[in-house]
Amino acid sequence: MTANAANTADTTPARHRQPRVLALLAAAHGGPALAVTVITGLLALRGGLHPFHAVAVTSAVFTGQLTIGWGNDLLDLARDRAVGRTDKPLAVGSLPAGWVARALVVAAVASLVLSALVGWRSALVNVVLATGAGHAYNLGLKATPWSWAPYACGFGTLPSVVTLAGPAPGWAPWWMTGAGAALGVGAHLLNVLPDLADDERTGVRGLPHRIGEHLSRVLAAVLLTAASVLAVAGPAGSPPAWTWMALALVVVLAVLTLCARGRAPFRAAVTIALLDVVLLTAG
């Protein structure tokens, strides 16, 4: 091999090299994808689905989430390189774009097949609304005042992806849909905050960029608290005592989010989001 060939074979700095499987998971935004998958799995278990259907619908959502993450990094490749994103395998060159494109196609086919296994109603909502909303965000809504809408749609319809796969297919209760939508928009506001400056440099101006960091934190706290209230007060019957205790903790954390300084507001808001997930799946 010539020196020139050796240089073109791998120009990635050693500190950026990682196993391709891990790089693929990182490019798929593995953390958020797994979080949404866990929520789906818990909803499926609480919803009394047949084990086969529970596994199928959870896997369908997971593979759909993978396509959203990979699609995001493929579309943002030039932007991520422009701002020097060292946390993106595609941007630093540790993962070929062709690998990601092929993985996206495989995951998309798998999501379609798995969705079909649990019935056309659940499949339609998962593919068109839950997963489709994520791709709509990637394809342009992220840079508009409507950047929150895909999150409201995706998280709001997620419970229905599960309930429509059950033995008596039906839409999720209104309170669950509302709590999911509020949780999704709150998560969007929190997720964008660390990247506000980089996004502005590359022309991405979604809702958080337009209203600013402080107001985004305030709105996130309000929405996440609203999700908690819906999750506690929405289900029929008297809520268990522990849910009221959790709701009281949410209120304290919301006040902390509004009044504290430094990283404390962000951490408090993330904690509220985690409590929302517990309350939503328990309900």
Automatic annotation (TrEMBL):
This is 4-hydroxybenzoate polyprenyltransferase. It is found in: Membrane. GO terms for molecular function: transferase activity, transferring alkyl or aryl (other than methyl) groups. Gene3D superfamilies: UbiA prenyltransferase (1.20.120.1780). It comes from Streptomyces violarus. Its main location: membrane. The keyword Nucleus does not apply. It comes from the Bacteria. Keywords: Membrane, Transferase, Transmembrane, Transmembrane helix. The keyword Thylakoid does not apply. One of its GO terms (cellular component) is membrane. The chain crosses the membrane at residues 21-45, 90-117, 123-141, 174-193, 214-235, 241-259. It is a multi-pass membrane protein.
